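User: two proteins, same treatment. go.

Assistant:
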Amino acid sequence: MKLFRIFLSPRWLFLWTLVVLMVPNVWLCFSEQMPLWAALTNILLPLSFYAIVLSLGRSTGKMVWWLFLFIFFAAFQVVLLFLFGNSIIGVDMFLNLTTTNPAEALEVLTNLLWGILTIVALYVPVLVASIIQIRKKIVIARPFRIKARLLAIVGVLLGIGCLVGAYKTTPNYKVRNELYPLNVCYNVWLTGKHLVAEHRYDSAVAEFAFQAKPTHDADEPEIYVLVIGETARADHFGLYGYERPTTPMLQNDTARLIWFTDAIAQSNTTHKSVPTLLSAATAQDYSRLYRERSIVTAFKEAGFHTVYLSNQRRNHSFIDRFGEEADEVLFLKDDGNTYHYDSELLSHTNLLFNSDHRKLFVVLHLYGSHFNYRERYPDTAAKFLPDDASEAVASNRESLVNAYDNTILGTDAVLNTLFHQLNNTNKVAVALYTSDHGENLFDDERHLFLHASPRPSYYDLHVPFIIYTSMPYEQAHPQQQARIEAVRHEPVSTNAAVFHTMLELAGVQTPAFTDTLSLANPAYKCTRRYYLSDHCAPIPIPQLKLSDGDRQQFRSHGLLFK
């Protein structure tokens, strides 16, 4: 009964709404290590704004619903803070909402128990109380509203003073980036711009052509395969020195393999990394994504039969559009079954490699190591145990890492079989494998998990990059073979290099080709590497806000920090 009386109190609802709306602001002041003036601004201005809005109407319940968008932002932000420990809701997070299928989202959310319980405890009572008060037509006293509004106006004035102090004392301070929830609103606007540009893509590329031409012998049978992994980090590959035998098959047969030791991704999000792996767009020229087609079309123009095979779900993004450019398209999960394993793609590749297509280009998009890791492999493939805990908490790290390492074992088996399939054709053949990004696995005191945080870490940037070449390829194109072997320890930006490297290895000429980005070209030179920021701006790697621990990981793994 006492609890119900509280639910009927408009003053309680007014004050509790302010408290729960301000939880992200207070948390962000600490997680983002804001300077004093910036922190005070981040408290005073939003608090005063919310108080003014709540004081505008007699029905506090109705005014709560006027603030529902900000309540949604607050709940979303709290979940992300539980997940990543820092950073505001970025553009990538909103785009993930539009491109992640419900099954994937449910996998993540059901394993964030404490985050979900927290937002339920904080925000559901406010919404329930507001509905009760609206239905019972409960209003708040006018003197209380006037007093609250006057205090809020004072808060605005003080907040403006603190804002001036923040601009004067904090280098590069910008309200649109630093002041929550204004920065989130700005990111919503940027998300809208992206979605509009993506919606216009089909008309923008209607007349586009790479003007691609083949240069290799027209009678020579050739196969080129681009394999895009999912969430695989290089430091968990035995091939890259990991203490566990996660890649026994690849390590047992390295004669035809070249693995690049210093490869990093330009994004830690699938919806940006995969399209840039499939196109000429890079962190430095991301806008090309909206006006050009993908590598599939370049190969098709050069006379190749093109095939796109995916173990991912369609998500109405550039990935789907690029896949549909192929002559043959297969998304395994179009049958409605969520639990296909990557190995199921191999029966399709075996048929393709032994078909009568003289020139063949295949893209394989794996599901690899996507969370929930335990669902990416059958029970019989579980080598590292225990692997049954899936709740995203640091205390489950041992089990989560075991399951993650089992997914790398699965990728090892898929790649090994694929390379043997190519070898058995006795054709000119090349396969390039890399992952879209890595993954955080509660690796250090930050307790970061998964990927896609607006602030990347070493763990979701360092990715495997492996090239397989057949003996007939080496014999037919010894210069390209020698070149990629010579640069295997040079720094690589995967999203910048894949498009141009694959074109050169296959002898496809196009004005879109850039020799300095091709690992198979003598002109290749990686002068500086970039990360594609949440606002789609190229940030030089040394300028990223990486922790001292991240920088140490770069050094310890021999990655050039430039």
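Protein 2:
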Amino acid sequence: MPTEERKLAAIMFTDMVGYSALAQRDDKVALELLEEHRRLLREIFPQFHGTEIKTIGDAFLVEFGSALEAAQCAIEIQRTLAKRNHDVTSDRRIELKIGIHIGDVVHRDGDVYGDGVNIASRIEALAGAGGICVSMDVERQIRNALEARFEKFGSADLKNIKLPMELFRIVLPWESGARTASPSQPSSKKPPVLIAVAVLLMIAFIVGGWWWSERQSKHQQSTATEPAPVAPARPRDQNSVAVLPFANLSDDKGSEYFSDGVSEELLTVLQKIPGLHVAARTSAFWFKGKNATAQEIGQKLGVAYLVDGSVRKSGEAVRIAARLARADTGEELWSENYTRNLKDVFAVQTELAQTIVEQLRGRFGGAETGAKEKIQAEVQAAEKGGTKNVEAHELYLQGRFYENRHSEKSARDGLAAYEHAVALDPGFALAWAGVAGTNTWLAAFSTEGGQKRFDEHLATARDAIARALSIEPNLPAALLARATIETNFDFNWNAAAQTVSKALALAPADPNVLIAAGNLEVARGNMDRAKELYRKAVDLDPVNAQARTFFAFHLAVTKQFSEARDEFPRVVELNPAAPWAHAGLGLAYLLENKFEQAATEAQADAGDWCRLLIVSCARWGQKRGAESDAALAELIKNSAETAAYQIAEVYAYRGDKDKAFEWLERARRQRDPGLAASRRDPLLTNLQNDPRWNAFLHTMGLADDQLKSSAL
């Protein structure tokens, strides 16, 4: 008679991705990888008290005594495979999908049965390659015990499971979406930050340090815990909305670019509707995968309404679900599902934008004659620069997705997607702007191919900007790329001012444009106006660590020390690994002649560039010359080709004018973007009475008479 034992257990189900297809192509390699996969996993299970119940072809069924041990085991499995896959060709990768559920199971004759097993096997399929999907019951038990982020899938209908289930994906630190990068990535000329802003932002003094040291500190960044966003500086605007990232419910985890793209394009359109305030992308997307309430999101972003939803793409079909809710109560005001052929996705997005604007206008604007036609015209105007080619549109979304991954490799992946998109539709202005932006970024950051590749990237960027603006002259993304070249490589401040002014007129609430405008004002020496622009960017995008860093740094260099000391801890709260988060406060102390505090703060900074600059100056101020020399020597050894301007700052602070001017000239030849802020750089004060100073400003186009016509 069979014996049975009923118990509560955590069940893990694993499955090799692509094994069946590989077995058909090359059964020998498939069997080899299958055995390697089994060996690796069987070494890991016992470490977390996992009991292997059985194998089913290329799948494992494993039982654990707790949900936490099951999740820890799953993470270790994916970590081990990620390391193993790093240096192998794509045809020899071993990738798993893992599902975990906790529930009643029945042991009978060495096997396990019950809903716990059935559900684990069903949700495993949703995890995607290299992913871990867990049920709500598991997430509830481990959320405070496991140092990881969770992305909510939403509610899913599982085969042969009666009730829909809330599912979550564990965000793994090494995933591209987790905002980390492998320390083995190739070194770059200057490192990435948020790509949409990054290149144009280089015109400010702090950018050379920010981007260069961002690459140095990438491996130190962690997404295990993320701080709550800083509360907005302005009261809640009743004519306001936040578009949250739509959940990806597609079977293919790689379709995340599509769900992100749908929400981002909706956000971009709504931003261009007159009279409507829309939360910036960085702040809205900060809540991705978090279990924040509507009230929390509304309070943090200062908005009255929220839009969220989900996207499920399968073959040629796409299903988009969207809803509008009140932020103060969470009350749903409107919802709709759209199931269409993929080629009709453009019509769906237009209809979605129009409907949301109508709903919002009806609530805060009242009825007016011709309102529907007016909204349609506004949405159509906001959609300019797009395409009706489905494949080109998908490639564009992929390009945007990769661009937001903030690494040199992802920039190249994004460029490839953009180039494919414009090959399919040469009239796709937004994709041309993407080609321009990524080429400009690579010209600034990449060392691959040396000067030849630099020139090629710059020439391609110029051509792409011309193409984009010939199709759509009022495209802010293309204008930003043009201003980047005018500022960073041409040192053409008057032209940059005109371009940024036009971009501001078209996108006055875009934090990226505001920061760029602030940086240009710094170059022109208008520090009060720069502060206004940085503060406005922070107000519009309170969770944007870059905006806060620019603002805090500006306070330090303008010797508003009390405000700077208040602001830098907010930068640390948002991103403690951000360069200048600690060294910026160190700079404030340095300028107050509080040398020990300056060195102490700088030592905690994630960026070597920031640390060495401040430490060298602080130790010099303390008359500890040997320590100052050692820090400077390290800076020169590691960064002569990427931080010539900052080396000049150290020499200028020391009063060694000859060396300072020598390195400034080297920085000019290298087109160092830090040069833009030299007029008001407090570390260069010792040079300003030297006859060579005005001559140098003239060579940069930064003399007073050269800037008269560059007002914004």
